[in-house]
Amino acid sequence: MKKNILILFLFLPFVCFAQKVTYGDNSVRIEGKTFLYFDAEGNPITDQAHRDSLETHRYIISIKGTDEIPEIHLVYKHPKLETLIGKILPKIDLNDINGKSIDFDESEYTVICFWNRHCRICIRELVVLDILAEDYSNVQFVGLTPDSPEEVHKLMKRLKLEWEDIEIVPNYNEEFTDILKIYMYPSNIIVDKNMVVKAVNVGGDTRKLLRTLEQLSGEK
Fold first, then answer.
1. How far is CA 204 from CA 37, 115, 159, 160, in A?
2. Scanning 49, 69, 125, 208, which has its CA 20 to 30 A from the CA of 167?
């Protein structure tokens, strides 16, 4: 079994078993072994799209499904989080959804949250961050999303959201990606006034974020 798995890894994604699809009355039958491919969000993709995605070096693969029909899922990869501590982010010009310029110097720390409108965990995290912002006056909360202002406004209206204490920045173009190499939503980092990374958190672990904020506040 281990040998078969090793062979599978050596040849993925360069081989795919042939298949024969037979259509009958109200039924579809697949003859022969085949791979099914899925993106990181669980959506079906073609073999070519799978190959193209792997060439970006943003993903690893996870094998699911059955022995008869293996499912090859893309999974976002990121560096060990501790290696990002101490990295310095560039100070770039960012404007929130109301056109206000983001000033990373105005607070002792800034929590930068990376999210998009399709990520339910992201939405829940932003709701929590909006609550935390009331208790941490020395911390600025910024949410970066690749979504357009129109898409963000539509989302907030549909879900009746009011993020009054978070500065939402639309049209984020991955300006920090070359340094952070984080491709998972939601993710958040904490930087100080000098844009030095003090903490990193992925996957919406708000409890860990809260503990980190308490620790940083206790250092003062």
1. 26, 10, 19, 21
2. 208
User: pLDDT of 111-139, one tens digit each?
Assistant: 999 999 988 889 999 998 988 888 898 89
Instruction: Residue 116: name the closest of 168, 80, 76, 164 by CA.
Output: 168
Judged by DSSP in three states, 176 sits in coil
Region of residue 34 (phi > 0: left; psi between -120 and 50: alpha; otherwise: beta):
beta
List the one residue out of 199, 203, 163, 166 whose CA is nearest residue 187: 203
In order of their start, the domains of the chain are 11-76 (no CATH), 81-218 (3.40.30.10)
Beta strands in 77-163 (DSSP E): 109-114, 139-144
pTM for the whole structure: 0.69
Taking the C-alpha atoms of residue 75 and residue 59, their distance in angstroms, rounded to an integer, is: 5
Q: For the beta carbon of residue 189, count every other beta carbon within 10 angstroms.
A: 23
- Asked if residue 126 lies in contact with residue 159, where contact means CB atoms within 8 angstroms, the answer is no
Q: Two tokens at 170?
A: 């639309």
How many Å apart are CA 207 and CA 132, to the nearest integer?
11
